[in-house]
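Fold Annotation — chain and its backbone
Encoding — discrete vocabulary of local shapes
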Amino acid sequence: MKKTWKEKFAVLSLACAQLVPAFGSVVLGSTRIIYPSQDFQKSIEFTNSDEVPSVMQVWVDTGNESSTPATADAPFVLTPPMFRIESKSRQTVRIVFTGEELPTDRESIFYFNSVQIPPATSGEEDQNKMLILLRNRIKLFFRPKTIDGSAEQSIKQLQFSLEQEGKDWRISAKNKSGYFVTLTKGVVKQEKSHDIAVEMIAPYTEKNWLIQNPGEVPKFPIKLELNYVDDFGGNKQVEYEILPTIK
């Protein structure tokens, strides 16, 4: 009996496929998803720019990069969770929050996964062979309407201090807002510029970044240049002045 495309995909996904982070011909219309708590659902759209159809499977996890549709543990229902998208066409996926209790004073982060399997060529459908499934994984922020302030102003609610740590210097960054702040690049501007390894800062938490072997005594005020990602996936830049810490 000939298998349906859903049966073939399920078997391939679980038994003989290798997941790799990649961008296929089927693309999502955004690089991050913001889910306002007051919304009943959030719709996202896939576009297939290829000349052939593909099969997609989607799910949301709580942070496990090795998650699968079977182990997905996030409080969301996706419709449809698996679908065929024809060539040169679009497909909408609805995300519905299932109502689990989450913090109301800050965002919660989840991860939206999509896997694309290319169509089998003639004569390959029943062969046992390794297939490479193209996986994309982006952040999904659940945003309560009761958070103080706005996402646009959260970048201005970062506070910085500088302390010596042996021969190195450490910048402490505190996020005083209820929003995740995603940083992509950091540069300390002195007589000599120093790149620092920045990262996303969760609401009401602190991160520490080392300036290794600075080779000079910091002169205040210190200029700190940061690149960050806004709600629309745009990369923006902001500059701060770090003043001496008064104890």
Q: What stands out?
A: Residues 7-18 have pLDDT under 50 and may be disordered. The chain is about 5% helix and 45% strand. Residues 154-242 form a domain with the Immunoglobulin-like fold (CATH 2.60.40.10). The helical segments are 5-15.
